[in-house]
Amino acid sequence: MAKLFYEKDVDPALIAARKVAILGYGSQGHAHALNLRDSGVDVRVGLRQGSSSADKARSEGLRVLPLDEAAAEADLIMILLPDTEQKAVFESSIGPNLREGDALFFAHGFNIRFEQITPPAGVDVAMVAPKGPGHLVRRTYTEGGGVPALVAVAQDASGKAKQIALSYAHGIGAARAGVLETTFEEETETDLFGEQVVLCGGLTALVTAGYETLVNAGYQPESAYFECLHELKLIVDLMYEGGITGMRFSISDTAEYGDLTRGPRVINAAVRQEMGRILEEIRSGHFAEEWVAENRTGRKRFSELRSAGASHPIEKVGAELRAMMPWISAGRARPQDVSGG
Predict the structure, then answer these.
(1) Dist. CA 293–CA 340, nearest whole Å
(2) For every residue of the chain, which 3-state class applies, written as one string?
(3) Which of 311, 314, 330, 341 is deepest in the core (most CB within 10 A)?
(4) Distance of CA 264 to the CA centre of its chain
(5) Does residue 339 carry a pLDDT above 80?
(6) pLDDT of 158-196, one tens digit each?
(7) What is the pLDDT of residues 86-125, one digit of tens each?
(8) Which phi and psi (to 5°) does residue 258 adopt?
(9) pLDDT at 327
(10) CA 50, CA 185: separation in Å to the nearest integer?
């Protein structure tokens, strides 16, 4: 049984004694910086020269420094930049400024797991990964709650890396909800698998295929959108609140029977085998190599795939229908709230 850590298990003085640099001010960056600041931690934000996030961070009362200066001034550096930018920033701005006794923190294990970044000896290397988007991490903190988080240690130079990571998690509010200990390997591999097979890749492909099947069979695109995409939130909310069994309790017997008998025909043996192949690509490093190479060569394929997805008919129909339901967008996170900073 996995162990969860809560506020009673944490020493807040450990993070309070640190000078923390948050590199990046996007979705997670702004939440970490503001929550730590409000927890009494000495925080500065490191950004690239000319970053569009600088004015926003300053307007919220935070000190903003160039990346290298923030890293040099701090003794705990949390990297909250996009995965694909971290290696270059580490080599140019972080590595030269690390000193023995410093701590290097991540919110995702990609660059450590796949050896894009190799920290020097004498530095603690740990991860604190909230299991929710930044705007939720910030909002729940201000409301007196928190978002659960994962912690992991890749290098324990001080002998206190885990305790410092837990203290950091406490500072952003995660210990109020529960902090689960894991490893860089487990977090990275399960996170990528979940994104690719279920939460993003599998889900968007399933929704799109269902929509296309109905439209190609002659049904109205609007009806197909409602059935295959719009109502998805209702089902996910039920699963979030009560698990799969709780969701099935809340739907009709007709829907439940269709779920139990037809679901396995969609997610069949061939799909499960493909899931296994995708997991092996992640664990072997093949996906990481492919993604790093894609970025080195200008993201041509990525851009083409992104453009094709955005121009799919389901997006046009969806935009028209959502425009008639303004309550859907109330409180919605904006694209600028999820930038890398």
Answers:
(1) 20
(2) CCCEECHHHCCCHHHHCCEEEEECCCHHHHHHHHHHHHCCCEEEEEECCCCCCHHHHHHCCCEEEEHHHHHHHCCEEEECCCHHHHHHHHHHHHHHHCCCCCEEEECCCHHHHCCCCCCCCCCEEEEEEECCCHHHHHHHHHCCCCCCEEEEEEECCCCCHHHHHHHHHHHCCHHHCCEEECCHHHHHHHHHHHHHHHHCHHHHHHHHHHHHHHHHCCCCHHHHHHHHHHCHHHHHHHHHHHHHHHHHHHCCHHHHHHHHHHHHHHCCHHHHHHHHHHHHHHHHCHHHHHHHHHHHCCCHHHHHHHHHHHCCHHHHHHHHHHHCCHHHHCCCCCHHHHCCC
(3) 341
(4) 29
(5) no
(6) 999 999 999 999 999 999 999 999 999 999 999 999 999
(7) 999 999 999 999 999 999 999 999 999 999 999 999 999 9
(8) -65, -40
(9) 84
(10) 35
Partners of 130 in beta bridges: 149
Mean pLDDT of 287-303: 96
Q: What's the whole-number average pLDDT of the chain?
A: 95
Q: Alpha-carbon torsion 334, 196, 203, 294, what sign?
A: positive
Q: Which residues are catalytic?
A: 108
Rounded Cα–Cα distance for residues 231 and 227 (Å):
6
Q: In this predicted structure, what is the pLDDT of residue 330? A: 66
- What band does 331 get if pLDDT is binned at 50, 70 and 90? low
* Overall residue count recorded for the chain in this entry: 341
CA 69 – CA 140 distance, rounded (Å): 31
Among 93, 126, 130, smallest CA distance to 109 is for: 126
Instruction: Give the Cα-Cα-Cα angle 302, 308, 311 (nearest 5 degrees).
Output: 140
